[in-house]
Amino acid sequence: MPGLIGLVVLILDIVAIVDLFKSSLDTGKKILWLILILILPLVGMILYFLIGKKK
Fold first, then answer.
1. How far apart are CA 10 and CA 42, in angstroms?
2. Which among 25, 28, 27, 49 has a CA at the least distance from the CA of 37?
3. C-beta separation of 43 from 11 below 8 A
4. How many angstroms separate the CA atoms of 39 and 24, rounded?
5. Which residues does 36 contact at the CB level (< 8 Å), separation at least 6?
6. 1 in a structural domain
7. What is the pTM of this model?
8. What pLDDT is attached to residue 38?
9. Could you tell me which of 48, 40, 39 has the C-alpha nearest to residue 15?
10. At what angle are helices 27-39 and 2-22 packed, to 10 degrees?
11. With CB atoms counted within 10 Å of each terminal CB, which end of the chain scores lower, N or C?
12. pLDDT for res 55
């Protein structure tokens, strides 16, 4: 079961990173969000979708 949870988090992180690169944020902000997502995969992804993503 832990392997499945890790796989889901990995897939969601990849989705967040792809969405990040498609966004209209400037390069500096993209790099900061990317570092946050890579260092803290679960927390970074959640924070990106809650506060980092422009509507």
1. 9
2. 49
3. no
4. 22
5. 43, 44, 47, 48
6. no
7. 0.86
8. 94
9. 48
10. 180
11. C
12. 55
DSSP 24: -
Q: What region, left, alpha or beta, does residue 44 occupy, with left being phi > 0 and alpha being psi -120 to 50 degrees?
A: alpha
Q: For residue range 1-55, list pLDDT tens digits in order.
A: 788 999 999 999 999 999 999 998 899 999 999 999 999 999 999 999 999 876 5
Percentages helix, strand, coil for the chain (3-state, rounded to 5) are 85, 0, 15
- Domain assignment present for residue 44? The answer is yes
In a domain, 11, yes or no: no
Least Cα distance to 39 among 31, 49, 50 occurs for 31
Amino acid in the structure at residue 47: L
Q: Confirm if 16 and 53 have CB atoms less than 8 A apart.
A: no
Structure tokens given for 54? 């422009």
